[in-house]
Design goal:
The protein is about 45% helix and about 20% strand. It has about 290 residues and is an alpha/beta fold. It has one domain (about 1-155, about 180-220, about 260-275): NAD(P)-binding Rossmann-like Domain (Rossmann fold, 3-Layer(aba) Sandwich), CATH 3.40.50.720. Strands 2-1-3-4-5-10 form a six-stranded parallel beta sheet, with helices on both faces. The protein has a two-stranded parallel ribbon with strand order 6-9. Helix 5 crosses helix 8. It is globular, with a radius of gyration of 19 Å. The two termini are about 35 Å apart. About 45% of the residues are buried.
């Protein structure tokens, strides 16, 4: 069997290369191997390779830049998943895909559940929602994991940015009115690999679990709390100042509440992620 992994050079894709490797033959595709914005090339590639399962970790993730490049964001986040969905339906192949907390507007006071109505505030969230809908409407057996505040040892993410800035500066201002759960890319990859294992090995499993699932660790914090935890674990002297989002305007508006309830995933796979602080500690040990 062949597992096709798209976006293998991203922060989640890089971890997936390692977690998927023991399961079967993995065809790990990066942007250097295949232009995912060329959908005709993608179709020809799929027809030539005929994978048994598709894991799509490719995405346009520059949230602020998407406001100026909506067509580029939509191409990778909406049109590519729609292309995968169409091929999946014709070949009865499951698709594992990654979504985002940014499909929500953040106005709900409680953690979001999968059935809550999406209402994205920015172009990135709108494009990701369009991809989710295309997969749910067309793909044979979509398995979509919504994740939030992703960090890891590679790529551009809050953890690596804060470590660098705290080492360079004496003081940083960090917003404290956006709430969520920082999620380690390795935790995401391990859950996805477990799902892939069952999707490939258990007859009927793909159709029984198709849908959208929230993948979120235990606990919650805000960006200031996340930065404070990084500072403490790193042993840095940089002074942190908490500020409201209004004092740190960005081109793309962010939801104030990105917390997500992961009970549905536990019922489907029997898995829960550790507390976000515990995973952060393990990740930072690996960076030392």
């Amino acid at each position: 069997m062949t597992i096709l992994l798209l976006g293998a050079n991203g922060q989640v894709g890089w971890e997936l290369c390692r977690t998927l490797a023991p399961l079967d033959r993995v065809m790990a595709v990066t942007r250097n191997d295949l232009d995912l914005a060329d959908l005709d090339d993608v179709r020809r590639f799929l027809d030539a390779q005929v994978p048994q399962i598709i894991v799509n970790a490719a995405a346009y993730t520059a949230v602020d830049r998407a406001e100026q490049e909506p067509a580029d964001a939509r191409r990778l986040n909406a049109e590519l998943p729609a292309t995968l969905a169409d091929w999946s339906a014709r070949h009865a192949v499951p698709v594992v895909h990654f979504s985002t907390d940014y499909v929500f507007d953040g106005t709900k006071p409680e953690p979001y559940e999968e059935e809550d109505r999406p209402n994205p505030l920015n172009v990135y969230g709108q494009s990701k929602l369009a991809g989710d809908l295309a997969l749910m409407e067309t793909a044979w057996a979509p398995f979509i994991l919504r994740v939030s505040w992703v960090y890891g040892a590679r790529g551009r993410n809050f953890l690596l940015t804060m470590r660098r800035l705290m080492a360079e500066r004496d003081e940083l201002r960090v917003v404290d009115d956006q709430w969520g759960a920082p999620t380690w890319s390795r935790d995401i990859a391990q859950v996805a690999a477990f799902a892939v294992y069952r999707l490939l090995r258990e007859p009927g499993f793909a159709e029984s679990v198709k849908g959208i699932y929230h993948l979120s660790p235990e606990g919650e914090t805000n960006w200031f709390g996340f930065a404070s935890a990084i500072k403490k674990m790193e042993g840095l002297d940089c002074r942190l100042e908490a500020i409201p989002s209004a004092n740190y305007p960005t081109p793309a508006q962010r939801p104030a509440n990105s917390r997500m309830n992961a009970d549905k995933l536990f019922q489907a796979l029997g898995l829960r992620l550790p507390h976000w602080g515990d995973s952060l500690a393990v990740c930072m040990e690996s960076l030392a």
